[in-house]
Specification:
By secondary structure, the chain is an alpha+beta fold. It has four helices and seven strands. The chain has a seven-stranded antiparallel β-sheet with strand order 2-1-4-5-6-7-3. Strand 5 and strand 6 (120-124) form a beta hairpin.
Length: 147
């Protein structure tokens, strides 16, 4: 009887472990933290200081993040013969630390650089730099979102 109880406890423990590990893969936008974005500035690579579009409405930002389809991006090396297009600078509120007041100052969390007439982007954060191939509809959306 003791042997049977030990085996049942072992099988039960393994099944709990396996169910916990089988959690569905979450949307990658949560991994990048894009759902916390408060403002997006769009500018050109030729003149990055000139901002020609600002997205700061919560609904517009949510639409922008959803249309990125981050879960369909694949990491690639970007060909050297293509030219850069637009820069998307993404901002969120700074983390309020214990004892500090909330200043609601925005800090840049990520930069997306598009490439003209191609499905490639560079995604940069403070410490990471990735190159991705994005679906054609995402590349088209990013190239049309510069006005």
């Amino acid at each position: 009887m003791k042997k049977v109880c030990t085996i049942l406890i072992f099988v039960f423990s393994i099944s709990i472990l396996l169910f916990g590990c089988s959690k569905e893969k979450e949307d990658m936008t949560e991994d990048f933290g894009l759902e916390k974005t408060k403002k997006i500035e769009v500018s050109s690579v030729e003149n990055p200081e000139l901002v020609f579009n600002v997205i700061d409405n919560k609904d517009d930002i949510d639409e922008f993040v959803n249309k990125l389809n981050v879960n369909k991006w694949s990491i690639v090396d970007i060909p050297s013969n293509i030219t850069k297009g637009n820069i998307y600078k993404m901002y969120q509120e700074d983390t309020v630390k214990l004892g500090e007041s909330n200043t609601e100052e925005l800090k840049q969390i990520a930069t997306i650089i598009t490439y003209k007439d191609s499905p490639y982007i560079s995604f940069k954060t403070k410490k990471l730099n990735f190159s991705f191939k994005v679906p054609k509809d995402v590349a088209k959306y990013l190239s049309n979102n510069d006005n």
